[in-house]
Design brief:
89% of the residues lie in helices and 0% in strands. It is built from two helices and no strands. It has helices at 2-31, 37-64. The longest helix is centred in the first third of the chain and has 30 residues, at 2-31. It is elongated.
Length: 65
């Protein structure tokens, strides 16, 4: 049961990371037209991982109570 819960949790976090990264990449391309593709990719990845960590933190706090 723990393995299934862990797999589902990992899939949810990866999905959140991917959607946040894609969303940020689209908005960064519009907001910063002079940025290079590597800069946009790196910043979007950082912002996407930040969103995933926020989600994990909220879930951890909920499970503590």
């Amino acid at each position: 049961m723990r393995q299934i819960s862990g797999a589902i949790g990992a899939a949810v976090v990866i999905t959140i990371f991917t959607t946040q990264t894609t969303s940020h990449r689209k908005s960064l391309l519009v907001e910063t037209p002079h940025a290079t593709a590597d800069m946009v990719r790196t910043l979007a990845s950082i912002l996407g991982s930040s969103g995933a960590y926020y989600f994990m933190t909220i879930i951890a706090i909920i499970h503590l109570f």
